[in-house]
Design brief:
This protein is of the alpha/beta class. It is built from 12 helices and 8 strands. The chain has an 8-stranded mixed beta sheet, sandwiched between helices. The longest helix is centred in the first third of the chain and has 18 residues. The radius of gyration is 21 Å and the shape is elongated. It starts with a helix and ends with a helix. It binds guanosine-5'-diphosphate. The site of guanosine-5'-diphosphate has 18 residues, from helix 6.
Length: 301
Amino acid sequence: EKYKEGLTKTRTGFTSKINDLVAKYRKVDEDFFEELEDILLQADVGFDTVMELMDQLRYEVQRKNVKDTSTVQSVISEKLVEIYQAGEEEINELKFADDLTVILFVGVNGVGKTTTIAKLAHRLKNEGKSVLLAAGDTFRAGAIEQLDIWGQRVGVDVIKQSEGSDPAAVMYDAVRAAKSRGVDVLICDTAGRLQNKVNLMNELEKVYRVISREIPGAPHEVLLALDATTGQNALVQAQMFKEATDVTGIVLTKLDGTAKGGIVLAIRSKLNIPVKFVGLGEQMDDLQPFDPQKYVYGLFA
Ligand code: GDP
């Protein structure tokens, strides 16, 4: 249900165009393929994925001797899921440690990182886990306070220091606190300024090192928040963070705010990093585990 609701824009923008196309052409021919290609590209599915999909569609259409366009529709959804999954299963699951799990959040300012941390904390709490937050963005004015407010709303504590303090020191405190309190999950925020790639790399490296030194095997997840409404720009950001740290999963935020939901597929194929969650709104429970089947079904249902 959440999926259907959250994908309204993509459904009206992308899916309805495909439906119109199917109605318009009826017969599968080169013109049909070309227009389909345009629609997919406009939906930010990404050039490589579109080309792969078109190749496979042409092949399947020939192999199955598909003549009418309405049959192509089901082949499209089938292929979209296949391309997304690339033979892997359950890649959207978070990795948990037996005792303390540490999740590090990275991402550029404004993509929805803080909101996502709150949503995830809320979600984990509902699953019966105890959660602690670490206010590691000591750089952006108001970031600590914003996380604190969310912490109160969700009902989880926030470990923080004053603005401008060393994020690695915050992490050290937070890990210690998480251990002594015996919490299940520690979620760490980090700074999202992007003025300098070397700075970003150094800071993330330092934060990562402090966490992994205190807890072998941690952080168990490094989740990159990307804003779906920024389209291909999100891919550029992802590439940069991938070089800066060991990103284990992506949270695609604001998917409800774009008609170009195809970006999910582009991210998967371009970066080979699984999308673990999608943000489908501004409220606490608007975070959904990403499921390619449900996603594609949500588009065409
Ligand atoms: P940060 O700078 O990355 O920490 O971004 P914030 O968490 O402050 O979010 C920036 C804005 O995006 C806020 O107005 C959020 O309410 C909004 N936002 C975050 N996630 C979503 C989402 O999934 N859908 C929508 N529509 N808005 C979102």
